[in-house]
Amino acid sequence: MKIALIILSVLLIVVTIKYILYRRQIGELCRQLSFLKETTTNNRLTTYMTERELLLLAELINDIYDKHEQSELALRDKERRMKELIANVSHDIRTPLTSLKGYFELLMQEYGDKQSDREMQYAMVMNERMNTLNDLLDELFTYTKLQSDDYVLELSEYDITRLILDTLFSFYGIFKDKGIEPVLDINETSVITSCNEVAVKRVVANIIRNAMLHGTGDIRIKYGMTDGGVEFICSNRVANPDAVDVNMVFDRFYKADKARNKSSTGLGLAIARELVERMGGSITARIVGEEFEIRVGMVCDKCFTLS
User: Fold this and answer.
1) Which of 249, 165, 244 is nearest to 204 (CA)?
2) Which of 78, 97, 209, 305 has minimal CB crowding within 10 Å?
3) Does residue 6 come out as left (phi exceeding 0), alpha (psi in the -120 to 50 range) or beta?
4) What does the pLDDT look like over 260-290, one tens digit per residue?
5) Other CB atoms closer than 10 Å to residue 2's CB: what's the count?
6) Where are the beta strands (DSSP E) in the chain?
7) Global pTM?
8) What would the pLDDT profile of 85-128 be if each residue is shown by its tens digit?
9) What is the DSSP letter of 300?
10) The CATH number of domain 156-306, selected from 3.40.30.10, 2.30.30.30, 3.30.565.10, 2.130.10.10
């Protein structure tokens, strides 16, 4: 009986030690996995225990990690090549398009006053289509440029209020042609802050164009100061608010219009988000009743106002 108890005690001690070692080994594997998850490294899981099951588990996890890393590298390479392709195609098309527009303008100067009303109508349609194509190429080129890790958006001190007002005024003729009466609530107090002139104007223009292209009715625009900076809000009605996914509107190529009946790349708001975030601001979208609203906030840590 004593011998049996001694053997049982020894077995119990061995099992307990094994259990403790297994727990420590599992804890160590979890620590290594957390490190691999948060860090880009060539390290892989290692075990100090030589049990076949643990060695096999570590090997399988390492294989899965290797395949995942290879997939990530392949995806990044594919993404890089796609950006290069879009940039190159945009540039290649832009060059003959610029020449085409130049010849078209020369043609209109030479024979414009001799054309019939129908011919002038055709010429206006051609010119509009060329301008649309130029805008689409510009969006593609701008978006691919913003995706580059090497791209730096230079910031300087500007009167952001003046930049926004100038952009709004540039749409006066378009609003008039389309019969749009913008509802404006603008605080014209000058606010000097660190931003990029071209980027601010591009953001406001893209938001307004999006409202005109995908919305209906008059556009509501509000701009003013907040506790931490300034805020720009643009909204108007949309035909089918339930079809708009506000969580995806800033994603590239997203279109609520699945039929793609509108001449758009679906990059306007994606570019706006990239530019706003590079200037340290925030941009959000929401549906309020039947209206689609975009809100841009710019933080002014070092800004000051001019009365």
Assistant:
1) 165
2) 78
3) alpha
4) 445 566 788 999 999 999 999 999 999 988 8
5) 6
6) 156-159, 183-186, 190-195, 216-225, 229-237, 282-288, 291-299, 304-306
7) 0.66
8) 777 777 777 778 778 888 778 878 877 777 787 878 888 888 87
9) -
10) 3.30.565.10
